[in-house]
Amino acid sequence: MRLPESRRLLRYRPGAQEHDLGPLRRSLAETINCDPSEITFVPSTSDGVGIVANAVDWRSGDNVVLPECEYPGVVYPWLNLARRGVEARMTPAPNGQVDMDALIERIDGRTRVVSISHVEWTSGYRCDVGRLGRLCRPRGILLVVDAIQSLSVTPVDVKEMGADVLVAGCYKWLLGIPGTALMYVRRDAMPSLPPDRAGQAGVKTSMVARPDLVWKEDAMRYQVGSEATAALLVLESSLGLLLESGIERTHAHITELLDRLIPGLARLGMTITSSLAPGTRSTILSFTTGDSARDEALHRRLLERNVVVSLRPHGIRVSPHVYNAPEDADALLRAIA
Prior knowledge:
four-stranded antiparallel beta sheet; 337 residues; 10 helices; 2 domains
């Protein structure tokens, strides 16, 4: 499908080999309520978290606090700091649901970073990130948010969250492909987060001038080399479609599909492991048979019937999107039956 000219966000700059990312940055900035200068692109969510982990001026004895249910790819950058004497404090998250009180209790005078997902990848638990932001900012603690499981289907406001950094791979709910992730860095936090690697994309120096390591003034300083053009072109198209649908409308549509599933799963003897409370519910629904081996067998049978769901530590995860219809929810229930 060819997008109308008014919907095309990426354009080549005259005489340049790279794409003009300005329109795309502006569109994404509007989506998460920040300035376009605070938006950049990195290869993956893990890369973005790793940039922050390597940029902080750590001292031996410092710590980072995060829930034990975080996606492994964003836990490893913090665990890798052990060689520098930094402790990664993992806090309880029974059934993939964050115990916020326990997390806050682990924060102390040596905490430099709190890292958390807006929506947890196994259970779909939606965290009250704003509560952490209100706690961390006055103490000078960096708040790093993984939004890969929420961006484009759940409202995300980095100012309301109090986030200093937000990273979200574009191949999930943004309907992109692997190779690029949105990275937001609050402008006031940039001086304390110098880039941990350098390349021609992140510095001011022209390629025809004598190389001089002077960082760009905005979030593009965290770029290293050429961007993943193909992934950005896909993001251009998918973001246009998602914004046309509208985040609130998409969220409501997915919620209706999940509401259709919940009573049917209960009738079939399944137990919902996701939170259904208004403040912590998301567009992800997890359920279990009550036995991990049976969950694995059921997951395998559903895939054989072309019903695509994910097997996760706390059961089977269902993540419908804007393209799913009520008939798809009914098909899942029939396949389980």
